[in-house]
Specification:
single chain, mainly alpha, 2 domains, two-stranded antiparallel sheet, 3 helices, 2 strands, 52% helix, flat
């Protein structure tokens, strides 16, 4: 008996969701129509043609005069290879330079307080 009640509630909720989605679409369409009307009025006042607007939309950056983003400064050692500082005692093939995210085996050694045992001398 409880299953039919839950199923009926689910059906009711799905119908309500569909109705709300339809309402949302209608409101968005109405808002878009108003925005388009404003854009058309501005374009007519400026004497712009549809071709000019389409061309401007296809070429980002030409219409706006935004400043380009400044290049991010990198450190002196960024991108350069450096020698590893740590070697996994359990697997000698695994090493870590001490840069970036520490591997799981380094985290385990840190938790045990035995990180010094992995130092490469």
């Amino acid at each position: 008996m409880a299953r039919t009640t839950v199923a009926a509630q689910l059906v009711k909720l799905r119908k309500e969701r569909e109705a709300l989605e339809k309402r949302e679409k209608a409101l968005v369409a109405k808002t878009n129509d108003k925005a388009l009307a404003k854009i058309i009025a501005i374009a007519k006042d400026a004497g712009l043609t549809a071709a000019e607007i389409t061309k401007a939309l296809g070429q980002p950056g030409k219409a706006s005069k935004a400043k380009p983003a400044a290049a991010k400064k990198r450190g002196a050692l960024a991108g350069k290879k450096i020698a590893p500082k740590y070697r996994n005692p359990a697997n000698a093939e695994q090493t870590w330079t001490g840069r970036g995210v520490s591997p799981a085996w380094i985290q385990a050694l840190k938790a045990e307080g035995k990180l010094e045992t992995a130092l490469i001398v």
